[in-house]
């Protein structure tokens, strides 16, 4: 296996992924209190005693608390744990994962991403992984890109651009492989030949959604697929929500591209905020309900970003700076201050005498005349019989500077 965790610990944790649901903090507390091997022994002992009984008898025995006790656990929850433990076959799950090119990693393994420990008792029991890359190394430089499933064309474009841009900058793009923004972000990273991780709410051998079968296959070949759930397990609404905490904890920051007020993507962002990670949002039209959640995020602690360079500047190391943003440089921007004053002193649509221009510019007639000839040579003004006038195309700019159109 891959790391420092013993076979007994790995087997027990693999079994417990069948018993304890993702994010179950009470189960996590028991795991912390007893350790994986002892907790599995206590659950398995009772399960073994009742394995041959009928379903009703098995539930009754578990609810009566027979077997090795577990403190501060309700009879109903304990019954559920023990019934699941009775059906768990960790050796079979580990064999199935290996046959599909996968592996199971645990806290203490060299490949385990230490940042997941920030989740406390809600930390994953372990992770089922498909793909060749080293998860811990990849997670050190990763960013989550999440958003609406029913995204607009704008949202899909921005997610794909964000995914490809981050990949080109050497970042790993993490998302949930769902329709909409998730899929666009993954595809953007794949198209750029970059790295991407899909965090699933089902077993890593289960393709969901079915429409993303080809994409998920490409991720397994080019990147990584990970899940808390054992092989063959199915997705459910609660598992999608709980999956989001792993996406938030695994990465340095989360970018939300389109999200309504009630959105799982915002749950990911809130998890990231609680964990002290960066939270970012891509703005959209204020008239779009699909951007309303993002804008609410930006009104709080979220940071507005428009491209991958801005994301990298926020979450990256010192020196990862986004390029300066500015409008186009116009010819008049290069003029000296005195020449600008003379240019602004000219009226918008009529000629002016040189002395009038000098008075408006606050300089002598000779100084103004010298600047007028300079501006004439540069194509900004022309000489008329009745004075000096702005050339066509300069008029609008002069009016705007004067507070006109």
Query: Class by helix and strand content?
Result: alpha/beta
Annotated CATH architecture of the largest domain = 3-Layer(aba) Sandwich
Order of helices and strands: HHHHHHEEHEHEHEHEHEHEHEHHHHEEH
Radius of gyration, whole Å: 32 Å
Level-1 CATH class name of the largest domain: Alpha Beta
Q: How many helices does DSSP assign? A: 18
Number of strands: 11
Q: Beta-sheet strand percentage?
A: 5-15%
Shape: elongated
Q: Biggest sheet, open or closed, and with what strands and sense?
A: 9 strands, mixed
- End-to-end CA span: 72 Å
Number of domains in the coordinates? 3
**Can you tell me the residue ranges where pLDDT is under 50 for at least 5 consecutive residues?**
47-54, 56-66, 395-405
Strand order across the biggest sheet?
1-2-6-5-4-3-7-8-9
> Could you report the average pLDDT, rounded to the nearest whole number?
89
Helix content: 40-55%
Give the CATH topology of the largest domain: Rossmann fold
Describe, in plain words, how this protein is organized in 3D.
With 405 residues, this protein is of the alpha/beta class. It has three domains: 7-91, no CATH class; 127-315, Rossmann fold (3-Layer(aba) Sandwich), CATH 3.40.50; 331-401, Orthogonal Bundle (Arc Repressor Mutant, subunit A), CATH 1.10.10. The chain has 18 helices and eleven strands. The chain has helices at 7-19, 25-34, 36-50, 55-63, 75-87, 90-99, 135-139, 153-168, 181-191, 213-222, 237-250, 264-274, 292-299, 308-315, 337-345, 354-361, 365-377, 395-401; strands at 102-105, 127-130, 142-147, 172-175, 196-199, 224-227, 253-257, 278-282, 303-304, 381-384, 387-390. Helix 15 (337-345) packs across helix 16. The longest helix has 16 residues, at 153-168. It starts with 6 loop residues before the first helix and ends with a helix.
